Amino acid sequence: MDGDERYSRQQLIPGWDQLKLDNSSVVLVGVGAIGSYVATVLVSSGIGKLSIIDFDTIEVSNLNRQLLFKDEDVGKSKSETAVQRLKEINPIIEIDFYHKKMEDVSVTVYEQANVIVACLDTFIGRRWINSMAIRVKKPLVMGGMFAFLGNAQVIIPYETACFECQPLVPDEELAQACTPFGKERKKERKEIDAEPPLPAVATLSSIIGGIMAQEALKLILELGDKLENYLFYDGLHNATTILELRKSKECPTCGEMYKLEQIEFVALPTETVKELRMRLMLTYGLEKPDLMVRGKLLEVEALLEDALNSKKSVVFVLDKNLAQPIKIVLQLSE
Ligand SMILES: [Zn+2]
Fold first, then answer.
1. Comparing C-alpha atoms, which of 310, 248, 317, 228 is closest to residue 276?
2. Residues 91-135 pLDDT 10s
3. CATH fit for domain 2-243, picks 1.10.10.60, 1.25.40.10, 3.40.50.720, 3.40.50.2000
4. What is the whole-number distance in angstroms between the Cα of residue 161 and the centre of ligand 1?
C-alpha cells in the first residue's frame, strides 16, 4: 500500500510503531500559525484521525505564518480550508473539522482523542481546554508564542501539573497574552476578548509547532521522555529553558480535594448568595459563576438560609471559565 513507502523513512527510527499511530487520533484546537504546523506534521506522519476545531476565518494578516493558507483563502473558514489542504498532503488520513467554538463542540469529540493539542492565544481559552482535558483525562499539549519567544507545555491529567496548578500564572493579569510577557500587556480582564494583535513570525510557529507535534507523537508512540512539563524558547538568543512544574493538591481543576469532591465551604445563614458567589470568584478566579443546588439556580439576592433547606448542601459552581462545574460542600454555621 501507499503508506508503506510514504512512511518508510520514519519507520527506520527505533521504536517507531506506524500501526499504533494509524490507530490514534488527535483533536487540534486552533489552526492558526502553530496549529497549521502541528496539523501538517501529524497528517504527514500518518496519524489515524485528526479533528480540527476553529471558528475563525482567514485574514490577510495571517498569511505570513499560517502556512496552510493561500492568498485566495482570505475570508474562508480556517478549519474547513485546513482540511482541504491537509487532504492534498495526505489523502489517506481521516480528517474532520468543527467550524465552531471549542466550548460548543460535544464532549464526545474530546473523549475520543488520544491526545488533545491546543494552539490558543488567550488565557481564558487555555484555561477552558485544560479543564476539559482533565475532565476527559486526556493528555494535553499546549503552546504559544510572542515575537521570537515561545512556550510549550505537556499536561498529563492527575499526573503532572495542569494549567491551574502552575505558579507561572499567578493571576489573570499576568498571563493575558499566554506568553512570558503578559505583564507588558496588562489590561482589565474585560478587554481580553479584544486583544490587540500579537507580534508573530513563521519561524517561531514552526519551532513551537514542531516541538508540540513531536510531543504529541511521543505521547502516542510512547517514545522518549515527555516534556517535564513547561518549555520556554527564546529564538533571539537560541536559549531553551525547561521548568518542572509542581502539581498542586489544592488545584481547583485537578487537585485531590476536587477529585474527591470535598471542597468544604462554611458560610453564615444570613449571607446572601451574591456574597458567597463573590468569595468563590476570588478563590477560584471565576468570571461570573452561577450556583446550582439540586438542578436549580440560586437567586443571587436570596439569603443562604432561605435558598438552601439544609445545613449542609452540595453546591455546583458553573462558570464560563470552567469546562465542568466545581462541586463544593456548603456548611451553614450555627
Ligand atoms: Zn491542576
1. 317
2. 999 999 999 999 999 999 999 999 999 999 888 899 899 999 998
3. 3.40.50.720
4. 5
